[in-house]
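Q: Convert this sequence to structure tokens.
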Amino acid sequence: MKKILLSFMLVMSLVLLLGFTSAAVCVGNTVVGGTIYQNTITNPVAGASVTVTCNGNTKTDTSGANGAYSVVFSCYECHYNDAVVVDAAKNPLTGESKGTVSMTYPGLNLDVGIVNVPMVPEFGLIAGLTTVLGALGVFFVVRRK
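A:
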């Protein structure tokens, strides 16, 4: 009976130690940042609304004059090697890009993810219809020959 009780206490002690160990892993913050640009990274988009999602947690920012944005998550919200989705919009431009938190700085207790987002013009109703009708017209002209 003593062996069973001693074994039970040993197992419970190990389980408690595992809980303390996993709690100590999460220290510091995670910064996700990058540049919002149109066509090339040398053409930044200022004033774009940026939404960053990591592990179901969402933060927002507005890109600065140089197109840069950054948001800060706690390590419980977003951690090293987590997937990140960044959406950016500034009428008529939109863009989405995916990345990961791929850098860690142990001395600073900081994880970093860099996700740059290229933006493209969003077609309006008239531009979209014109494009579709033009494509159909070209199809029938080519088919006729």
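The chain has one domain: 28-144.
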